[in-house]
Write a structure and sequence with these properties.
It is a single chain. The chain is α+β, with helices and mostly antiparallel strands. The chain is 15% helix and 34% strand. A hairpin with a 6-residue loop joins strand 11 and strand 12. The longest helix has 13 residues. It is globular, with a radius of gyration of 18 Å.
């Protein structure tokens, strides 16, 4: 479902799942999930406006933010519509009961810097990450260093375009900029991610990282939920040849 509200003429929001307790939307690159010092309208406020209009709710609309995506990243974001769902979802995210799968575009495997395997099998990558708050950037080490946190992800190559490789990633830990930092550390920065070593930016300022799929047990009904984000409306994503 697409939604355009008169108060937010520049924003089109795509809802991929909703019920009385949760709502899952597909975030566009460039949107912020929650308000920050930029003063830009966050996705959370757009979702509130959507709920208020659709259900003709009087007064303030309750909406809980349970996780975030970096501004240049697109894909699925889960919000809680009730306090009960918010408390339970917070616990589920904290305890690793919400399973997220990401798609990323990186350079072709022929790049001599890239240490990634192109055999289609799952591979585990482990680093220790430190975070520089002033730079809003993480740094990866192949050994433990003071102040570092262990970061683990799994990846597999699932497709190609003419110039790029499509990688599926699952996070086993949740660290600041983890996918961006770890892929760059093995010589495969995400397309458009100048902060982590990409050679050029994307025209729209995005990076080619998509929160593609999310799976969890509904915090109230206990039914399994599994949803996928649509691919960005971009020629490069449309040209991908995904392996079966």
């Amino acid at each position: 479902m697409n939604f355009r509200n008169n108060s937010y003429l520049c924003i089109i929001m795509q809802v991929v799942y909703e019920d009385n307790h949760i709502i899952i939307v597909s975030k566009q690159s460039g949107e912020i999930v929650q308000g920050d010092k930029t003063g830009d309208t966050p996705l959370s406020e757009t979702v509130k406006a959507y709920i208020k209009e659709k259900y003709q709710k009087p007064g303030a609309v309750f909406l809980g933010v349970v996780h975030r995506l970096d501004r240049p990243v697109s894909g699925l974001v889960v919000f809680a519509r009730t306090s009960k769902a918010l408390t339970r979802l917070n616990n589920m995210f904290r305890d690793g009961e919400v399973h997220k799968t990401y798609w990323a575009l990186v350079g072709k495997m022929e790049d001599v810097r890239c240490q990634m395997s192109d055999d289609g099998e799952w591979h585990t990558v482990t680093h220790w990450l430190t975070r520089n708050e002033k730079q809003n950037k993480s740094y990866a080490y192949d050994h433990e260093v003071p102040g570092a946190k262990k970061a683990v992800l799994r990846y597999r190559v699932i497709g190609h375009s003419e110039r790029y490789t499509l990688v599926e990633v699952q996070l086993l830990t949740g660290r600041h900029h983890q996918i961006r930092c770890q892929l760059a550390a093995i010589g495969c920065p995400i397309k458009g991610d100048l902060k982590y070593g990409a050679r050029r930016s994307n025209p729209d300022g995005s990076i080619s990282l998509l929160a593609r799929r999310i799976e969890f047990v509904h915090p109230v009904s206990k039914e399994p939920i599994a949803v996928e984000a649509p691919l960005p409306d971009d020629k490069l994503w449309r040209e991908l040849r995904v392996k079966n």
